Amino acid sequence: MDMIIATHNKHKVEEFSRILAPLGVTIRTAELTEAEETGTTFRENAYIKAKAACDETGLPCIADDSGLSVDALNGEPGVYSARYAEEGKRKKTVLEKLRSVPEEERGAHFTSAICCVFPNGDVLEAEGYCYGRIAHECRGTSGFGYDPIFICTEESCAGKTFGEATAAEKDAVSHRGKSLRLFAEKLENYLKN
Ligand code: ITT
């Protein structure tokens, strides 16, 4: 099945494509108006993006809203991950704020909320989480966003930052890997009915 992805983030397009392709979903991009993310949760923002794209194209559209929640910062940057500090200074801002925070209090997790809206109004949703801790400095150049400062403690890339992990190692345990695999299962059931 073909599906339009509602995102302006090319890294998400790459991750969606490589995770969903083996599950039988082909991701397509489209020139879309940027929807204003006025929600207070990842789930609300994912719906806002997918619904706006579906209204604009008349096709099934899928969106992800995601972010990094840091325990020692009361869950910040959370839904504001893409707007936290100036572009290029986001990782540094988190590292700076955690400068004197000890190892055992550097816990963090990523969340990915997926929402797919169909032209008939049907909605499919899925969420995924990935746990780890914040490094003391940037490590690795793979991935995007906060990847170089997020040490994943889950199996397959335990101890590496996502910046040091291969794409396959990240996808196996990442928030987006989990949310998209769950989404693909829900889509399969939806298409059967
Ligand atoms: P769209 O809204 O157009 O999809 P965006 O990048 O603005 O693109 P979000 O509003 O969902 O997307 O913000 C997510 C931000 O959280 C993203 O820009 C990164 O800074 C961070 N983030 C999410 N997933 C990540 C991942 O897998 N690795 C590193 N950082 C991630």
Task: Give the topology.
Elements: E1 2-5, H1 10-20, E2 26-28, H2 42-57, E3 61-70, H3 90-97, E4 107-117, E5 123-134, E6 150-152, H4 167-173, H5 175-192
Parallel strand pairs: 1-2, 1-3
Antiparallel strand pairs: 3-4, 4-5, 5-6
Classify the fold: give the CATH topology.
Maf protein
Q: Mean of residue pLDDT?
A: 95
What is the name of the CATH architecture? Alpha-Beta Complex
Under CATH at level 1, the class stands as Alpha Beta
The main β sheet shows up as: 6 strands, mixed
N-to-C CA distance: 15 Å
Structural class: alpha/beta
Shape: globular
What Rg do the Cα atoms give?
A: 17 Å
Across the major sheet, the strand order is: 2-1-3-4-5-6
Our count of domains comes out at 1
Low-confidence stretches: none
Total strand segments:
6
User: Cofactors and ligands present?
Assistant: inosine 5'-triphosphate
How many DSSP helices? 5
Q: Assess the beta-strand content as a share of residues.
A: 15-25%
**SSE run:** EHEHEHEEEHH
- What percentage of residues falls in helices of 4 or more residues? 25-40%
Task: Name the quaternary structure.
Answer: single chain
